[in-house]
Amino acid sequence: MVPSVARYGFSDAERAETQLRGAGWWSDTGPGAAEPIVVALSRTPDPDLALHSVDRLRESMAEEWESLSAALAEDVELRGRLFGVLGDSTAFADHLVANPADWKRLTADAVPPRNLDERTSALLEAVRAEGDGEPGTEDGPVAELCGQRAISALRTTYRGLLLDIAARDLASIAEPALSSVPYEEVAELLSDAAVAALRAAMSVAVAELRQVGVHDTPRLSVVAMGKCGGRELNYVSDVDVVFVADGEDDIATGTRLASTLMRIVGPAFFEIDAALRPEGKAGALVRTLDGHLNYYRRWARTWEFQALLKARPVAGDRELGARYLEAVQPLVWTASEREDFVVDVRAMRRRVEEHVPAEVVERELKLGHGGLRDVEFAVQLLQMVHGRSDEELRSASTLEALRALGEGGYVARADAADLVDSYRFLRTVEHRLQLRQLRRTHLFPEFDDAGGLGVLGRAVGFRSSGRNTAGQALVAEFRRHAKQVRRLHEKLFYRPLLESVAKVPTEALRLTTSAAEERLSALGYGSPKGALRHIGALTAGMSRRASIQGALLPVLLDLLGNTPDPDGGLLAYRKVSEALAETPWYLRLLRDEGVVVERLAQLLGTSKLVPELLMRAPEVLRLLADTPALSERDPVEVAMSLRSTVSRYSDPSRAAAAARSLRRHELLRIACADLLGLVEPAVVYRALSSIWVAVLESTLDMAMRDTAASADREVPARVAVIGMGRLGGAELGYGSDADVMFVCEPCNGADEETAVKFASTVVEQVRRLLGQPSQDPPLEVDIDLRPEGKQGPLVRTLDSYLGYYRRWGEVWEAQALLRARAVAGDADLGERFCRAIDPIRYPEGGLEEAKAREIRRIKARVDSERLPRGADPATHTKLGRGGLADVEWTLQLLQLQHARDVPALRTTSTVDGLRAAAEAGLLAESDANDLIEAWTLATRVRNAVMLVRGKPGDQLPKKSQERVGVAAALGYPSSVDTGEVVDDYLRVTRHARAVVERVFYDT
Questions:
Q1: Which residues form the PII-uridylyltransferase/Glutamine-synthetase adenylyltransferase domain (predicted)?
Q2: Helix 652-675 crosses helix 635-646 at what angle (to 10 degrees)?
Q3: What's the total number of domains in the chain?
């Protein structure tokens, strides 16, 4: 069977067969020996266009056609290069038809110009230029051809140079065996071709000036900007330049030379855009070096320094160009210190986006969302902020800079790799679009243009497979890359840390020893030498980790300088960093999430408890970037999660360790939210109490299962845990013990003795497991409030408790029962216990006067005997005047006296009880408010002391630095004097003590 032409991918099979026969590549039996040629044609982006262009070329070559046809049969490289170009570009087809001999440039034996000098020489030869030196200098080559003849010669030669590049760029599409050329190499070759074009045009411009009597060549340098400056030029692009003259005497002739150069370059090669010069299009075309520097120092806007990132002298006076670059570079690398620098760059990007028509924004490769400018703006902003201190970032190439940002740790390696991949893809698509007609375009085809998408998809390298066409694959990949670029652009371009780093002076980034000590001292560090040791340890070596620390520390040092203890905060940061050195996400999180750095600095410079917990619960660090997750977690959900996790363990030690770990996580989360002012005090008490209850509940459950399993029998007793004191009131602090009592009753047919013995064993195990030594705040289970105190049994039955209280119970024990609440274990038994003790704690007829006097006597004795030696009774939060004990005993006396008749007083909550007393008329509203304010403040101060010192304390600190920390933990502004904090505490507690004197002591 004779193969059909259509099987080779030609749309118009009839015309294709005619053209193939004309070329000698098809006969009645098919392609025959020419099949490799036909197959290569079929692989091109547009086989019909490729074959049509071959047909045009054949007609223009006459007798040379046979040589080309024979070469195509033998030369794989020629096939790939010629058909790759003809299948994608009508412009190069036109060039080859007009210059048919240029096909020989594409053979395997052809040696194209290999570097910039050889490309420059080829263009100079086209205009018969002679002379040594740099084109455009006094002894540089001067063209013999001028005017239109020179332009025509330059245009043809330049197209030949572009043909060399494009043919090698596209060859692997038609012949997959050939190696493809990376995008970066293509961009560098195109950039070199453009520079060669500028140099050749300069020689023609000098010749034209000499024709009109200007024989003294001015000292003029042509500085490339933009993509040409960065050696990342497109096939078709304006070339941005700036002209620099050596002195005022060169301005006039330099302007004539520059104008003539631009007039030649436009029709011969590409458009020259000089709008990036000082004052833009309204400014002088040529300025002296001093004129440029004066403008940049006094008037330049932020975007102009951004443009200078890619400045590169390319033509004219080389020495002058080098001086220009040396002079402007320091301005580039200090521009980010300008006020609102980061804001200005972001505003510029938004203005660019706003000028893109809405109907094409999704298809705009360059300026649209997820386009090339998103990558370039993000990279340039990061370069200018971090490049001040890191010279590795000072590259004019977008991809080189991206790689350096990734290697230096300023950008996650994965993010840098993704951006490199996306940038290459988008630039490759841009190149293929421009090759079609060698026109400047950045617009992706319409998404419903199946034909255009198919051609472009194959040109980019996609092939149809199954039901998916090359066009569909291209669209999917384009959308993926655009989405990826936009996501990473927003992540990097709007990174809060950038603004903080930009505000740090450049000299502070470099941190030379003497200057650094002065700056650290000015920031508030008490020991600058010690701080420098920490900085040196964190940034030592050439590792990526050290680079990231080098970028973070200038900001962190400033942030820590605004905390109560900068030196302690920096030491804590070093310890945390060393402890988490092998945690892969730690530094990445700090680098990418500015809010985490700010919050971490505040926490480390205020609290000693937080860093200790953070080293063992680093996962909480992630929550600093998520305010709701940090501050709004439901305590019930937390408790359920803890109990569920612990229940999975059969080994008691592992179960207890899991409970400790989860408690540590939750304790740290609450502490962070508290110190950052994200939660109310009442939320802190409830959350701390809830997690303690969950630990008790899960440990009790595990101990019961283990004890029963050890005895190889069913559980013989129900056990309930009764919370007392602050646990009963759900008012625990960070360092609080858990005051509890255990009650049991037999079940599953066991007798009372067996049940009590079993329950006692369980309680011993609970206390042992929770009381094991730990670096965390202790988990002390205090059962001293049980009947008979330390001498009494660990566990009693309900009847035993009631028998004791009815026969021997004292008034202080009834008072302690006011805060009894079932918190864990058997819920029904716990509730029955609480109901059973109601007559004891809420006595019928109220409290006898003798017992009221006994309570007052006990309180007076506590005030005089229990206060620690040396403690200040005015500022002791627990036993001091107007402190916690004063307020709580006052409420409890009212509860013993009136709770039987006022049900609202039957609460274990201090604040709720005081409000109920006021509503019942037992307290004046103002008195209740004074007591609540004092109790709340004393509780907060107690918690703040624990957070700041890392260990419990009931005394308002005497050390100045600790008082500053407590003030910060309480939410006072940093400017407040600590004396004001003490005065506030004394005022509030003084008012409360006055109420206590009247209500409790009845004086």
A1: 347-493, 874-999
A2: 160
A3: 4
